[in-house]
Amino acid sequence: MVKRLDSTDKAKKLVHEISADFGELMFYQAGGCCEGTQPQCFEKGGYYLRSRDVCIGQVEGFDFWVDRDLFEYWKHAHFELDVTDAFGAGGFSLESPRGKSFKINYRIFTPEEELDLEPVRLAED
Predict the structure, then answer these.
(1) What's the pTM value of the predicted model, to 2 decimals?
(2) Fewer CB atoms near the end CB (10 Å): N or C, the chain?
(3) Which domain of life does this protein belong to (predicted)?
(4) Which domains are present in the chain?
(5) DSSP readout, 21-83?
């Protein structure tokens, strides 16, 4: 099956650093403006999911959730979690005090990949 989400080595390293400080984590990417357009990292349960938000995979064992409307728009794209060495738009995410920001690199799935995508998980209604 084709994964919907991957992460760079730089992102994996940062996730390990953050989880060493905070324990279990979760990621959320909303479709709003400013900080909502970049992935946010929270302590697990630190962000309240809306019903039918979509978990597209895991980063180092931690769920990566996407706003249900954003998923509908980007469901044909592969997400790759990456890191930039700059302070992001919002500052709510746990990597912000480290002077870093998570970001997503996107690419469109090929027609062949679309036929074999990993299933997603929906937040409870």
Answers:
(1) 0.92
(2) C
(3) Bacteria
(4) 5-114 (2.60.300.12)
(5) HHSSEEEEE-SSSGGGGS-EEEETTSSPPPTT-EEEEEETTEEEEE-HHHHHHHTTEEEEEEE
Token reading at 103: 């970001």
Kindly give the pairing relationship between strand 77-84 and strand 40-43.
unpaired
Query: Is residue 4 within 8 Å of 55, Cβ to Cβ?
Result: no
What whole-number distance in Å separates Cα of residue 62 and Cα of residue 22?
12
Q: Is pLDDT at 3 greater than 90 in this prediction?
A: yes
Q: Tokens 């912000």 belong to which residue? A: 96
Q: Would you give the DSSP letter of residue 63?
A: E
CA distance 85 to 29: 19
The string of pLDDT tens digits covering residues 69-80 is 999 999 999 999
Task: Report d(CA 105, CA 7) in Å as an integer.
Answer: 9
What is the token pair recorded at 46?
């630190």
